[in-house]
Design a protein that fits this description.
- The structure is a single chain.
- With 131 residues, this protein is mostly helical.
- The protein has one domain (11-124).
- It contains three helices and no strands.
- It has helices spanning 10-74, 79-107, 113-129.
- The longest helix is centred in the N-terminal third of the chain and has 65 residues, at 10-74.
Length: 131
């Protein structure tokens, strides 16, 4: 007994293959959009968190730095030197924080890994269908 697939013409089979490939490509594009949106959303949240934290820390830091310069000035350190020392220390801390934020942003990968994997699988499937 012949299978239903054996009764179909090559034109019908290629038509089905073309339709299925079109559907597959649309689904892959949709998956890629979803993945990129999720990655970009996470990156946006990380950047916003860094900006808000930086603004709050900046306000508090200004007050603390002024107090530190005053303390150093009142214990006998020249005012210019106390301001210079405090400025150097704060700059060092700022650089460390910037580097941490930069490393966190490097962890975010915008490449749609899942989509790339399924495209490879789809290519293999298409090869199998044409054999």
């Amino acid at each position: 007994m012949q299978n239903a697939n054996q009764d179909r013409s090559i034109g019908d089979l290629f038509g089905d293959l073309t339709r299925d490939m079109g559907t597959l490509v649309r689904k892959e594009v949709q998956l890629a959009k979803t993945e990129v949106t999720q990655s970009a959303s996470k990156m946006g949240k990380d950047v916003a968190s860094m900006a808000i934290g930086g603004a709050i820390a900046y306000a508090g830091l200004l007050v603390l730095l002024a107090a530190l310069v005053i303390i150093l000035g009142t214990i006998g350190v020249p005012w210019w030197l106390s301001a210079l020392l405090v400025g150097l220390i704060v700059t060092g801390v700022g650089v460390v924080l910037i580097m941490r934020g930069r490393e966190a942003l490097k962890q975010v990968n915008l490449a749609p890994k899942q989509t790339m994997q399924t495209i490879k699988e789809d290519a293999e499937w298409a090869k199998e269908q044409t054999r």
